[in-house]
Write a structure and sequence with these properties.
Elements: E1 7-9, H1 31-41, E2 45-49, H2 50-53, H3 62-79, E3 82-87, H4 106-125, E4 130-133, E5 139-140, H5 148-165, E6 170-173, E7 183-184, H6 189-196, E8 205-210, H7 211-216, H8 221-230, E9 234-239, H9 258-270, E10 280-282, H10 297-315, H11 318-327, H12 330-341
Parallel strand pairs: 1-2, 1-10, 2-3, 4-6, 6-8, 8-9, 9-10
Antiparallel strand pairs: 5-7
Helix pairs in contact: 3-4, 4-5, 8-9, 9-10, 11-12
Length: 344
């Protein structure tokens, strides 16, 4: 079994309360103040988009970007924190409305590649070894707009460029089936794993599995985690929860389906996730109703739920479980699991 777990979240998870249908409802919190909250909340790792570390990076030279990232690294060290990963925020720019690596415009594809290299400069300056790649706009509004075979090949070319540019990093693809595109090219863990074997260094390309993204695909998060673990490609996780097939809600972990959360913790702990330095990452957002001074409870609550579920995972009578599996008495196994979750 894995030992102690380390937890991470991104600065965007302490946010202003906007959602897809409404404006901000809380004041912004300055980046340095967010960093001071990490240890108080029980977290050791910081997830970064490239422009979380270096705002306005498109207007800076490579040298300026590295210098600013080094300053952030010093801030992390001062708080006893580490950067878990860096991700290129490629989906918000004016040049990426038709995709990034798969755009039909060569100039836009070149922008995405150069921005990804600058992201890797930031990764190195933060002394970080993991990149997360959310292929947010790699899809189409209509199927006839792009050749899906060519699109996959272009994604592979972009990943190969990153692997060559920084030979020290691993890349975790974060699959999501929709939003902002109605159908994405790499929607599931299976697609991400398959894509890794088209790259020049398959051992350095894996998966970041986010609970909500799997649910949006109509799949089970623990199954997707098990699939990635079978290939030794579960590089990190984003735990949260989701109430149905709608927009990405980023609810607190376990808040919708406690049994589903239990099985995610169970598969991670059963196969020693975390023993090689992997973080338990959260990607959760506070409810819009939360006031400014209590707008971090979603983070501390999610961590507490994970740790309580970990206790339940480790206290489950495994001999009894195996006996019921051997007998194929799944009704009794069902009741055993439910009773255990209810503390009976």
């Amino acid at each position: 079994m894995a030992g102690e777990y380390r937890f991470s979240f991104g600065p965007w998870n302490i946010h202003e309360g906007a959602d897809p249908f409404g404006p901000t409802v809380r004041d912004s919190v300055e980046f340095g103040k967010k960093l001071k909250l990490y240890k108080q909340l029980g977290f050791d790792g910081v997830q970064f988009h490239d422009d979380d570390a270096v705002p306005g990076m498109d207007d800076l030279s490579p040298e300026q970007i590295i210098k600013k990232a080094e300053q952030v690294h010093s801030m992390l060290e001062g708080e006893g924190l580490v950067a878990e990963f860096v991700a290129p925020r490629l989906w918000e720019g004016g040049l990426t409305i038709d995709g990034t690596y798969t755009s039909n415009d060569p100039a836009c594809r070149d922008y995405a590649r150069q921005r990804s290299r600058r992201m890797l400069d930031i990764t190195a300056a933060l002394d970080c070894k993991l990149v997360v790649l959310w292929l947010a706009r790699e899809g189409t509004y209509i199927r006839e707009a792009k050749d899906s075979k060519v699109a996959v090949e272009r994604i592979v070319e972009a990943i190969n460029d990153m692997l060559a540019y920084n030979p020290d990093v691993k890349i975790a693809i974060e699959p999501k089936p929709n939003e902002p595109m109605d159908q994405a090219y790499i929607p599931t863990a299976g697609h991400a794993v398959a894509l890794s074997y088209l790259t020049d260094a398959p051992q350095r390309v894996g998966v970041n599995i986010e609970t909500a993204h799997v649910i949006l695909a109509g799949l089970d998060p623990s199954d997707e985690m098990g699939f990635a673990l079978a290939y030794d490609k579960l590089f990190t996780v984003h735990l949260n929860d989701q109430n149905g097939l709608k927009f990405d809600q980023d609810k607190a972990f376990g808040s919708v389906d406690l049994r589903r959360a239990f099985n995610q913790v169970r598969i991670l702990d059963q196969y020693d996730y975390g023993t090689r330095g992997e973080f338990v990452g959260l990607d959760v957002k506070a409810m819009r109703t939360q006031k400014q001074d209590v707008a971090t409870k979603h983070l501390s609550n999610s961590r507490a739920i994970f740790l309580r579920l970990l206790e339940l995972v480790r206290s489950l009578d495994k001999d009894k479980v195996q006996k019921l599996i051997n007998e194929r008495d799944y009704e009794e196994l069902d009741l055993l699991t439910i009773n255990h979750l209810m503390g009976r």
